[in-house]
Design brief:
By secondary structure, this protein is α/β, with parallel strands linked by helices. Helix content is about 50%, strand content about 15%. The chain contains 15 helices and twelve strands. The chain has helices at about 15-25, 30, 45-65, 75-90, 105-110, 115-125, 135-145, 185-200, 215-220, 235-245, 260-265, 280, 295-310, 310-325, 330-345, and strands at about 1-5, 35-40, 70-75, 95-100, 130-135, 150-155, 170-175, 205, 225-230, 245-250, 270-275, 290. A six-stranded parallel beta sheet has the order 2-1-3-4-5-6, sandwiched between helices. A six-stranded parallel beta sheet has the order 9-8-7-10-11-12, sandwiched between helices. Strand 10, helix 11 and strand 11 (about 270-275) form a beta-alpha-beta unit. Helix 3 (about 45-65) packs parallel to helix 4 and helix 11 (about 260-265) crosses helix 14. The N and C termini lie close together (about 10 Å). The relative contact order is 0.12. The mean pLDDT is about 95.
């Protein structure tokens, strides 16, 4: 199979690039003839525009050699960029797999697009020969737009690491992701002083890139209990996942965050918002603790449950790892993706 895949550049700090990099690490490019074209990089608007234009011309140059185009898409600017590639692929008679990752697409659809824009969006998305979603919540939303029969549910997945020891009760909390308002960072930082009073040894490790300078100032003001570790990857990320006994993700919206899957695979006790595809992974009091988005009170209570009970953390962490092995193994996911390619190409 010859597959031309597009999405953000693999160097981008984000969920889609993480999914794509996981496929490469699992050897997808060894199973098929895979060409990847990065359509977006981080940086200024000029740099992003230049990258998008360059990617489009590279896409045009490569297109004739490939039968199927796999489009990784989110909402907002990601949709507008990818719609150009989708229309072009359809114009050239190519098979198309649209892989929808974004967690806030519903808000984008109803509140940022005009009626004409929504009509155009439905037309563009209907050009896909297969439409892949990563969570039941996205399946429900896009099923209403395109029809359930057109959709395939393919949850995100990760490589499951070897079983390692986990010391619970260390009160080390890990966050991995974009450091911004939508990830619930304001609420997270607001509860830390009260938790510090009750648990003097508490330490929050913030892994990610700041998107709001004010949040950086707040983190610096909480240096006695909060540490910014930057964007971590590879062995360094593995070390934090092994050392931290609690993982937190208080997002306002999500698709199906890879960071939660990684925390589950490393037997962390996960405290996360019950939004998007997270309840598919975190079953409250079974594989983690669910909290209400945008609620500092709910977040504090959820974290206190984990901080105060080592046995609970251990039970949740072990159950989470078992669920990750059973339902979110990258090897199984990749086989399902190959089945989708074959069905489209038949």
């Amino acid at each position: 199979m010859r597959i031309l895949m597009i999405g953000p550049d693999r160097s981008v700090h984000g969920g889609i690039s993480g999914v794509v990099n996981n496929y490469y690490e699992a050897g997808l490019d060894k199973r098929i003839d895979l060409c990847y074209v990065g359509t977006m990089v981080e940086g200024s608007r000029v740099r992003k525009l230049f990258t998008a234009i360059k990617a489009y011309f590279r896409f045009l140059f490569k297109l004739s050699a490939y039968r199927l185009v796999h489009v990784n898409m989110a909402s907002d600017s990601s949709y507008f960029r990818k719609s150009v590639f989708i229309r072009t692929a359809r114009l050239f008679g190519k098979k198309i797999v649209i892989h929808q990752h974004g967690g806030d697409f519903e808000n984008f659809y109803y509140h940022q697009l005009s009626e004409r824009g929504r009509k155009n969006l439905r037309r563009v998305l209907s050009m896909g020969d297969a439409f892949v979603v990563i969570s039941p919540s996205l399946e429900e939303f896009f099923g209403g737009l395109l029809g359930r029969e057109r959709l395939t549910l393919l949850p995100n997945a990760i490589q499951i690491p070897p079983q390692g020891g986990k010391e619970y009760g260390r009160h080390r909390i890990l966050f991995l992701g974009r450091i911004c308002r939508e990830k619930g960072i304001r609420e997270l930082l607001s509860v830390m002083p009260a938790l510090k009073e009750k648990y003097p040894d508490i330490r929050l490790c913030l892994g990610g890139v700041f998107e709001d300078p004010q949040l950086k100032e707040k983190v610096e003001a909480l240096s006695d209990c909060v540490e910014w570790i930057g964007w971590v990857g590879g062995e360094e990320k593995e070390r934090y996942l092994r050392e931290c006994d609690i993982f937190v993700l208080p997002s306002y919206f999500e698709g199906q965050p890879v960071s939660v899957l990684e925390a589950m695979a490393y037997s962390c006790a996960v405290v996360a918002s019950g939004t998007g595809g997270i309840p598919q992974m975190i079953i409250d009091n079974e594989t983690g603790i669910l909290v209400e988005p945008k609620s500092g009170k709910s977040l504090r209570e959820g974290l206190e449950r984990a901080l105060s009970d080592n046995k609970l953390c251990e039970r949740l962490g072990k159950s989470a790892r078992e669920k990750a092995q059973r339902e979110f193994s990258l090897d199984q996911n990749m086989e399902r993706l190959l089945e989708i390619y074959r069905s489209v190409l038949e």
